[in-house]
Amino acid sequence: GLPWYAVTGDPLAALNGSIATGLWLAFVLMWWLVRRLTGSDGAGLVAATAFVFCPYMSARTAHVQLLMIFVFPLLLIAFHRYVERPGPSRGAQLGVTLAIAALTCGYYGLFAGCVLGLVALLSAQRAPRYWVGFLVAAVTTAVIVYPVFSAFLEARAASGAAIRPWEPSDARIYSANLSA
Questions:
Q1: Is residue 141 within 8 Å of 104, Cβ to Cβ?
Q2: pTM value > 0.90
Q3: Taking the mean position of all CA atoms in its chain, how far away is CA 150?
Q4: Which helix (H) or strand (E) holds 36?
């Protein structure tokens, strides 16, 4: 939202601009991913439309961070590029995309990081270059995310916000339901 706010000075324009940008990116990146995998523009358009306008998205419009689903096709594109030619450079690119996911929505960053770790193990290669690249990805992600996370923790402590333990019932609030 910062570019939108810088141009307009209006918080509402920043909110609407960030949502529109996030959804536009989700559409374009999903189209690109599917086109890359299938070679079909039509398949890309159908997949992108279904992805951006799925019921879960419609049910979560009040949660701006949950609308930033563009991080998933972005991460998948980076992962596919990495598997095609593993190494430190592509690992750094993968790390940047994972950091973008974490900074855009903490939930998505955690989810994407866990899934990426699992997929890395499932598609494991014996070549040291493969694992060095994943190490570079992890370090790159940590270097980018840590300063922001550290500042968040300091701001939270300064605000006096109470830290309460997570309860399993908390998940019900954000879980998919009949309307989603």
A1: no
A2: no
A3: 19
A4: helix 11-38
